[in-house]
Design brief:
By secondary structure, this protein is α+β, with helices and mostly antiparallel strands. It is built from 11 helices and 9 strands. Strand 2 and strand 3 form a beta hairpin. It is globular. Keywords: Transferase.
Length: about 350
Amino acid sequence: MAEAVKGIDEAKVTPWLEANVAGLVGPVTYDLIAGGHSNLTYKVTDAAGGAFVLRRPPLGQVLATAHDMGREHRIISALGPTAVPVAPALGFCEDVSVNGAPFYVMRFVEGHILRDAATAETVLTPEQRRTAGESLVDVMAEIHAVDPDAVGLGDLGRKEGYIERQLKRWYRQFEQSKLREVPDVDEVHELLLHNVPPQGPATIVHGDYRLDNCMVDDTGNVNAVLDWEICTLGDPMADLGLLCVYWTDPDDEGAALGVSATTLDGFPRRAELVARYAERSGRDVSQVGYYTAFGYWKLACIVDGVYTRYAGGSMGASEGFEHFDAQVLRLAATAKHTLAATT
């Protein structure tokens, strides 16, 4: 007998899939693709060889993420008919009696996720790596070109004051969880708060747009944007700034999160991405330095929360997490330096 897959109640989920997902032929097999503290992702293979993806919340977090599943499904369903490449949405189950938490199903998309240089070097040529960088920017411009009201997402979030709300949210989280003082986080928060650029018309904001949150095909073109769980409405420049944070040039001291594929030959430089976005979107990118600094600061707050949870033992490790502390300090210092360079 096959070993049970954690997070899937096969006796209930399989009949639900057979009844609600068009084209799926039982029986099916389940394989965990991505686990951890974010939403869990499983590949579902049916008896006819068809491939699907099932997404559910992390184990033990039903209430906190019940809305997220419906939100993600709603977003990719709305974007399906647009120029934004997403995996086709096939079904949503909000009945927690089926699997202990809501989940949704989408079509499996073949492709590559470029999380590190070894993967990118193996699957793409230098020319295809340039294509990947350019396609990443072009797709982001397509996301920002979608009229939220026209696709039924006009009420996804408040449209105005995006940066102010983000500053309040992340600084409050930092204040509530910090284990020690980080002066650069406090100082940069004040500088960011008092220098927020005027926000233009609100767009869909992915919220975590980067190379390894997208799938690319064998030519390097983006064929699916993934991880829509914190998508909302707001200032599109925040997506561009965060992309600059995650994108690593060959002469950078290091990657924001320690690992990056983009230092390889062929990938465009960060400045080229910004210039291409300006060309494709028609937007003024003169304040990109502010949004990049905000991205570094926000990431410092997020990583500090991870450090606190590890230090408190809530993530199961008693040692080996100290590098998160140094990472917070480095990100906050980079935010301060980036902001100073824009004024």
